[in-house]
Amino acid sequence: MIGAKILQFEELTSTNTYLKENAEHLPDGCVVTAQYQSAGKGRLGRQWIIPKGLAVSLSFLLKDPSYDISLLPILCAVATAKAVEETTGVRLQIKWPNDLILNQKKLCGILCESVIKKDSIFAIGGIGINVNQQPVHFSQESLPYATSLRIEQNCSFSINKIESALIDSLEEVLCQYQKYGFSSLKPAYCGRLYNIGKEVQILYREKTVVATAAGIADNGNLVCKKDGKTFLVNSGEASVRGLYGYV
Ligand code: BTN
After folding, report:
1. Using an 8 Å Cβ cutoff, are 176 and 71 in contact?
2. Rounded distance from Cα 38 to ligand 1 centre (Å)
3. Atom 2, ligand 1: which residue's CA is nearest?
4. Angle at Cα 83 formed by Cα 178 and Cα 114, nearest 5°?
């Protein structure tokens, strides 16, 4: 059960790293939060830096899950969107595969990792939600496309309430996936997906390809079309941008 144990820290290097290093001794479903991460990690080797106490940095541990976890980033995106929407009243969209966007800017990032120790596979879901940062916290050079709930809604929000809604939502979404599969969650994911039907730049190993995003495969890959041909883009390796900016 997600939240079987909850560990709250003032400071860690990274909540994901903490769970990776301590997975063997922690229970399945353990949640770790930190007010500040000194070495927060983003996707594709990037950094994730946030000022102390202004955002959600939360990770959870799955120990030897009995179901396919390759869709974990997508499941986390659905759970996080639902939790933020429920606690704040905003409606979020998803930029494939798992950025949550508000008014076309990035509000939330998700990094899922796995680690093998002895004979066990541990999966870690890490979620960062920009909550109470001000414009000054997003430097235009490095984070021109980022935003926070406070910037977009002009008021501050309780980080504790969002964290607790997120834990409940993760439990609900993962149970639904386990019982009924991804098809039962596809409407919640695709209904929020920003990219579908749009032209996107696919960024993969220094290369950029422009194509039309046409849909989502059952394994979470992005189905794209170009010059009458259809191909799949892998969510672990590539990211997409709009033709003229972040989305
Ligand atoms: C991204 O969009 O690049 C992913 C960002 C993921 C950030 C979260 S914050 C909690 C967890 N701990 C980390 O070090 N990273 C993830």
Report:
1. no
2. 12
3. 109
4. 50
Closest residue by Cα to atom 9, ligand 1, is 128
Helix axes 159-180, 72-88, angle to 10 degrees: 140
Long-range contacts at 62-66 (CB < 8 A, ≥ 24 apart): 62/28, 62/29, 62/122, 62/123, 62/124, 62/125, 62/174, 63/23, 63/27, 63/28, 63/120, 63/122, 64/28, 64/120, 64/121, 64/122, 65/121, 65/123, 66/178
Burial class (CB in 10 A: 0-12, 13-18, 19+), 31: buried
Q: pLDDT band at residue 171, thresholds of 50, 70 and 90?
A: very high
**pTM greater than 0.85 (yes/no):** yes
- Report the distance separating Cα 153 and Cα 122, nearest Å: 37
Residue 209 backbone zone (phi > 0: left; psi -120 to 50: alpha; other: beta): beta
183-239 pLDDT tens trace: 999 999 999 999 999 999 999 888 999 999 999 999 999 999 999 999 999 987 888
Q: How many CA atoms lie within 13 A of 190 on its CB side?
A: 18
Contact by Cβ (8 Å): 54, 48: no
CB 40 within 8 A of CB 128: yes
Query: What three-state secondary structure class fits 103?
Result: coil
Query: What is the reported pLDDT for 205?
Result: 85
- Shortest-distance atom of ligand 1 to CA 13: 14
Residue 209 CA to ligand 1 centre (angstroms): 26
Render pLDDT for 107-130 as a digit per residue (tens, 0 to 9): 999 999 999 988 899 999 999 999
More confident: 140 or 88 = 88
